Automatic annotation (TrEMBL):
Signal peptide segment: none
Native source species: Plasmodium chabaudi chabaudi
Biased composition (Basic and acidic residues): 590-607, 638-667
Domain Helicase ATP-binding: residue ranges: 9-475
The protein's name in its UniProt record: DEAD box helicase, putative
Keyword Signal: no
Cofactors (names): [4Fe-4S] cluster
Gene Ontology MF terms in the entry: ATP binding; DNA binding; DNA helicase activity; hydrolase activity, acting on acid anhydrides, in phosphorus-containing anhydrides; iron-sulfur cluster binding; metal ion binding
Highest taxon above the source species: Eukaryota
GO annotation, biological process: establishment of sister chromatid cohesion; nucleobase-containing compound metabolic process
Family: Belongs to the DEAD box helicase family. DEAH subfamily. DDX11/CHL1 sub-subfamily.
Keywords: ATP-binding, Coiled coil, Helicase, Hydrolase, Iron, Iron-sulfur, Isomerase, Metal-binding, Nucleotide-binding
This protein's GO CC annotations: nucleus
Segments of skewed composition (Low complexity): 610-625
Length: 1079
């Protein structure tokens, strides 16, 4: 109990405000896990502490050293050596955590506080780990004490040097920069020496310096960052977006303010790939592919890299001198000789800035772009990784092994935290998935053939052989488009049917990755494309970028790399649609899942069983869904009409299959020259060129094993982690006692929420069913618009409406701006409207800016009282965005995002892949294989407790789609209620939310509130009558205006009761917001 109280007292020294009980509980668990990682991996330091705790002088020295930070030893003499005991019973056995931190719990701040507490509290044992201290038990005690005294002395010197260095760095930084309100401004009046590279890079320039790429290689730069075995312990925090990572810097500033900066000797940096950090806009525009960007960066003479390169070469020469001469103290601090004000250059200045000030990615890029500095932020951040305690980085930089190696990230015995980990499985799979189009393969093949014709006599034999191998590789891929009738095959079957197993793909991958060939290919392709348009005296149209892209060789390289790294559980999909089967956004929904009138769950279970049976042959036809059948009902004649049009289009498409096959054969085999292909592309709008071969990776657990095997600790933390079994599968090879599960309570007050399910269409009095069959029913869309209008009318400031897919939102938006224009104008009189679109990064900023502007207006002078943001579940705005306080006071959920690809009603639909079924099939197969592998001996079964039983895995698979869909819904719910005093109302516009299996998936606070209002009835008061009158004025006006749409209304006995209940909910809604001092 005293230890717990000591922890609570000390963590409050770090936490910027009084922590909630849930926050204290999580921080304690995190600290125990992190503390245990030091002890379990480095038990040799226990001998050091056993000796120290017997020596009062050593204890005193350490206390004096650490008193400015946090005491390693508590002041109470009875427990002053508790941190030195390392009793076995005090050691936490768990190594990994799966933590569900509920909405509003402040997980970023809580997580960061526990990490900083650990780093400060255990500075000495982290120092011992870094120094690789070892004591032999057989040595005399006086020798051991002498060694430890020297270690403590070195530790004290290290602390003092760090403090002095930081003070000097701050003086220098304050001379060159002004730091105000989280902004960094360069002092232009101060002169700064700018390093420029004087080396000759032998650039080969074309007329505009764009046609030919330079041939300089920065191998020397890359080799300077070798992985060091004796690095200090580091903590990597991964998240999905840059904004989520930048949030940690704002939380760190709160902790710095609480502790004062001089007491916080923690270095936190943010890194990313070149895609995230490159500031050379010209290179970024020319290189859409990541591999191409990497190659171009390495080879080009970029002004931002020049100064950095010279400094690296200087450091490399100093290292060579150290091999000849004894290392002196002056050598070990080589940079210190340059730290005088008159010798500071841009490289040293930015290095000090990154290592002294904790600045986010936007700030780093802005400073490095300044015309007085001009240095590459990618290389600067990459070089300083080894100095950081906490490293923030996107998922891809850890999950993709190639990027991890490029950045020289060492995860061995370190700690990795995946924030917002509800999407980690999707990110693991996406990191290992890729697609390449038919046009890209054809263009690569024809360009290679022309290249070999021109340079065969000058190329060496090995290069000629490899290029011819790549041409054969392209031929085999092209034949696969037409020779195989199965759209989905597992990797093994794909390799056999495509005959790629006859090629040595490892040699092809090595050639493409390790030579300058890709660079030369791009230059050669660009020259040939330019020559074609020069000869024809025409301009280069935009269609060439899609079908004759000189970067196609980089995509083929990446495709080959991921094909080699794939395993037997992954799939290859021939995508004949214009979209990508890899796109896992919210544009997915199952028509009838959990609809009481639909087929039973058993049908889906049988489908998965069939998939398992087919897996032995590698074919997975059950993922190729049947066409949607019609639903001829009185209230969706328009939808039936559109469906018939779609069936006609499909029939016409089938009649032209032979012609399409003939054209495909022409595409694949007819072209002998690159110029013929370019001419064909310009003269024919051939949609078959857009077809793709896609590697669909589903083996998230296999790919995650390399991380759990190397890391000391893996921590998954997210707001909504259900079904939890899915995340436990990532650790299926681990023992059960190595995994800690934690779920926090909700911190906000139960009276701070208002929840209603709206199951009935108040115009037709049918049930609200947002499945695909009703998407084109105008009466249905009109009801959605009417309920959104009324339910947001009196709620000031932020209102957010989540639709289940982009397709649904687009259909609704099209309705509003056409038939629904009258009700749209009504909305626009009271609210500013914003609609989320793919790749639109300004909608969130505009929405929040308008809310701030409304709040600043005088209440009596306002024309509009708020905003409505229409967005999509499982898209950008549904995750990781904090709509705290007035940015969201009302959330409306329209539909449930069950999985199944949708298409527009006016576009002929080709069957597309059901990736969710592939994932479910993988979970079953992987769990069976792992069970056999982990339990080869029946006698060992009793000792090895599995993380999940077969029954639990089967149950998870049965309910997976439902729980996954509701996880997305619950994630949307969590966008509001961001702190203990926050409040919001929630409406669910779909009758399916009343189904028991869906209802049970709601968060506990939603279910508790809904259960408490089941017996609440309306009160026929004056207030009710007034609200009823206001409602009917709106209702009758809309109904009269749209009477041509509401033609299928049935006389329903309970219609008046339905409207009465709706008005009652409106009265309670207004009372709720009034009670919260909002209206």
């Amino acid at each position: 109990m005293k230890m717990v109280n000591a922890f609570r007292d000390e963590i409050k020294m770090i936490f910027p405000f009084a922590p909630y009980e849930a926050q204290l509980e999580f921080m304690k668990i995190m600290y125990e896990i992190l503390k245990g990682s030091n002890i379990n991996i480095n038990e040799k330091i226990k001998i050091v502490f056993d000796i120290i705790k017997k020596n009062e002088n050593m204890i005193k020295d350490l206390k004096n050293t650490n008193k400015a930070i946090l005491n390693i030893f508590n002041e109470n003499p009875e427990i002053k050596t508790d941190e030195l005991g390392f009793n076995k019973q005090d050691i936490c056995t768990e190594q990994h955590i799966i933590s569900e931190m509920k909405t509003g719990s402040g997980k970023s701040l809580t997580l960061l506080a526990s990490i900083i507490y650990f780093l400060l509290k255990h500075r000495f044992d982290l120092f011992l780990i870094k120094e690789n201290v070892e004591l032999k038990k057989e040595e005399p005690e006086w020798i051991q004490e002498n060694i430890i005294n020297n270690i403590i002395q070195k530790y004290q010197n290290n602390i003092n040097m760090e403090k002095t260095k930081n003070e000097n760095n701050l003086k220098i930084l304050n001379k060159y920069f002004t730091f105000t309100n989280d902004k960094i401004q360069f002092n232009d009046h101060v002169l700064l020496q700018k390093k420029k590279n004087q080396n000759d890079f032998s650039l080969q320039k074309g007329k505009d310096n764009d046609d030919v790429m330079p041939i300089w290689d920065d191998e020397d730069v890359d080799n300077d960052f070798a992985l060091d075995e004796a690095r200090k312990k580091q903590i990597f925090i991964c998240s999905r977006t840059q904004s989520q990572l930048n949030q940690y810097f704002s939380e760190l500033k709160k902790i710095e303010k609480k502790l004062n900066k001089e007491n916080l000797s923690i270095n936190m940096i943010i890194i990313g790939s070149r895609k995230h950090l490159c500031i050379n806009e010209k290179i970024m525009r020319k290189c859409p592919n990541v591999n191409e960007l990497n190659e171009t960066c390495r080879s080009s003479k970029c002004k931002y890299k020049e100064g950095f390169t010279e400094m690296v070469l200087e450091k490399k020469q100093k290292k060579k001198k150290k091999k000849i001469f004894f290392e002196s103290s002056s050598d070990s601090n080589s940079d210190s000789s340059k730290e005088e004000n008159d010798e500071i250059n841009n490289y040293i200045l930015i290095k000090k800035l990154i290592n002294t000030k904790n600045i986010d990615m936007n700030q780093i890029k802005e400073v490095c772009r300044h015309d007085k500095i001009e240095i590459c932020p990618y290389y600067m951040c990459k070089e300083n990784i080894q100095n950081a305690d906490i490293i923030l980085l996107p998922y891809i930089c850890i999950l993709n092994e190639q990027i991890r190696n490029n950045l020289k990230i060492n995860i061995k015995n370190n700690i990795i935290i995946f924030d917002e980990s509800q999407s980690i499985i999707e990110n693991i799979n996406n990191a290992n998935s890729i697609g390449i189009s038919k046009s890209q393969i054809i263009f690569t093949k024809l360009t290679l053939k022309k290249y070999i014709q021109k340079y065969e006599n000058t190329l060496n034999n090995n290069n000629v052989v490899m290029i011819k191998q790549i041409i054969i590789y392209c031929d085999l891929l092209l034949k696969y488009f037409t020779s195989i009738n199965e759209p989905v095959s597992n990797i093994t079957r794909f390799m056999l049917l495509s005959k790629l197993d006859a090629l040595n793909l490892n040699n092809i991958s090595t050639f493409l990755n390790n030579s300058l060939f890709c660079r030369r290919f791009k230059v050669f392709a660009e020259i040939n494309i330019n020559e074609y348009f020069k000869k024809t005296n025409t301009e280069r149209p935009s269609i060439i970028a899609a079908h004759a892209n000189s970067s196609s060789i980089y995509l083929l390289c990446e495709f080959t790399n991921k094909l080699i790294r794939s395993n037997k559980y992954d799939y290859v999909y021939v995508n004949q649609n214009d979209d990508s089967g890899l796109d896992n956004n919210a544009d997915l929904e199952d028509d009838h899942r959990h609809d009481k009138q639909a087929g039973k769950q058993a049908d889906k279970t049988n489908e998965i069983k069939n998939a398992n049976n087919n897996s032995s042959t590698g074919t997975y036809n059950s993922t190729y869904p049947n066409k949607r059948h019609g639903h001829s009902t009185s209230n969706n004649a328009e939808a039936e009409k559109k469906r018939k049009i779609h069936e006609t289009n499909t029939h016409q498409e089938n009649n032209t299959n032979k012609e399409g096959e003939k054209r495909e054969q022409e595409c694949n085999n007819h072209f002998s020259e690159l110029s013929e292909y370019i001419k064909y592309v310009l003269e024919n709008n051939d949609i078959t060129l857009k077809e793709k071969i896609e590697i669909i990776s589903v083996s998230s657990c296999n790919n995650f094993q390399s991380i759990t095997k190397d890391c000391n600790n893996v921590i998954l933390i997210g707001g909504t982690l259900q079904p939890i079994e899915e995340f436990l599968l990532l650790f299926l090879n681990e023992k059960k006692n190595k995994i800690k599960l934690y779920s926090s309570d909700y911190i906000f007050k139960k009276e701070n929420i208002f929840v209603r399910i709206m199951p009935t269409n108040i115009l037709t009095f049918n049930s609200i069913d947002n499945t695909y069959k009703n998407r084109f029913d105008k009466a249905h869309l009109l009801n959605i618009a009417l309920q959104i209008y009324i339910l947001t009318l009196y709620v000031n400031y932020g209102n957010i409406v989540f639709f289940s897919s982009y397709t649904f939102l687009n259909e609704f938006t099209n309705f509003l701006y056409n038939e629904g224009k009258y009700i749209l104008e009504k909305m626009q009189k009271k609210k500013f409207l914003f609609f989320e679109k793919k790749n639109d990064n300004n909608v969130l900023k505009n929405y929040m800016t308008n809310i701030v502007n409304i709040k600043n207006q005088d209440h009596q002078m306002r024309i509009k009282n708020g905003c409505i943001l229409f967005c999509v579940m499982n898209a950008k705005l549904s995750e990781g965005i904090n709509f705290y306080d007035d940015f969201c006071r009302n959330i409306l959920i329209v539909g449930i995002p069950f999985f199944k690809h949708e298409k527009s009603s006016t576009t002929p639909v080709k069957p597309s892949i059901n990736k969710n079924a592939l994932v479910l099939n993988y979970y079953k197969e992987y769990s069976k294989d792992t069970s056999k592998k982990n339990n080869p001996n029946p006698q060992e079964v009793a000792d090895a407790i599995p993380i999940l039983s077969d029954f639990q895995i089967n149950q998870m698979c049965k309910t997976y789609e439902l729980k996954y869909a509701m996880k997305i819904v619950n994630q949307c719910i969590g966008r509001s209620m961001r702190h203990i005093d926050d409040f919001s109302s929630f409406f669910f516009l779909d009758q399916r939310f009343n189904n028991s299996e869906i209802y049970e998936c709601f968060p506990t606070f939603v279910k508790t509130h809904l259960n408490s209002i089941k017996n609440v009835s309306y009160i026929d008061s004056e207030n009710f009558q007034k609200e009823k009158q206001n409602f009917y004025e709106i209702y009758d006006d809309i109904k009269n205006h749209y009477k041509h749409i509401i033609t299928n209304q049935q006389p329903i006995k309970d219609s008046q009761d339905c409207l009465k209940n709706f008005v009652t909910d409106l009265v309670h809604l207004k009372e709720f917001h009034k009670k919260m001092k909002y209206l």
